[in-house]
Known about the structure:
alpha/beta
Amino acid sequence: MATNEWQTPPEFLNLVREFYGGDIELDPASNPVAQQTVKALDYYSYEEGRDGLLLPWNGRKVYCNPPYSRDLIVPFVEKALSEVNNGAELVMLVNSATDTLWYHTLIAHSSVLLMWRGRLKFWKIYNGTAHSTWELAENGRGKIGNSPRYLNSVFYFGPNVTRFKEVFGKYGSLVVAV
């Protein structure tokens, strides 16, 4: 079953916080459950009436794991590029849909791309809380699928390319904009 709810694993979020040197200031494509692990200073949730496609991201350290469905990923990519032009510094986690126009648009505008080695193990929601699939299996709730169809890519938009390479470089192959 297809889903837009791919809860970012805490280990990956720790890398984002390490890269930023502290808190994630904004998560514009989120929900209350995701915030149990993202812990952004501010977040936007469509379900709560704060649509990340309509509200500003500018001037902040942003982490975005946008919805992966075709009807939402394109608007989030367009919004991200607009907000980067307005001063947002952005780490964006997406699936590696290298055959799509939106993916190549991100490549063309990013400061650096990390092609993640392997697949991230996303968490799933169970009874209103995010859990790893190992945690669910150990508690007798069965394993819930936790990997998207595609590999993962991490795009960075901002001036701190060297720092991005230091923190994320060992997790995959880096492609730096020229």
